[in-house]
Predict the 3D structure of the following.
Amino acid sequence: MPPSSRTVLDALSRAKISTLNAIINETGLPSRTVQLALKNLIALKLVNVRICLNDTRRKFYCYSRSSK
């Protein structure tokens, strides 16, 4: 797993649920890097995506592992 994915996963493990902008602010990584890391983590089933029902353009990223 690339270092950027580990950084994003660590940030999500602390927050449990977060938006893309919150992850970018937490990690200090560029937007594109965070998006690619999230794509990799979703493919590995370490992160789930939830859609906001009030605004379907907004997504929440959830840490899905019960233990590290």
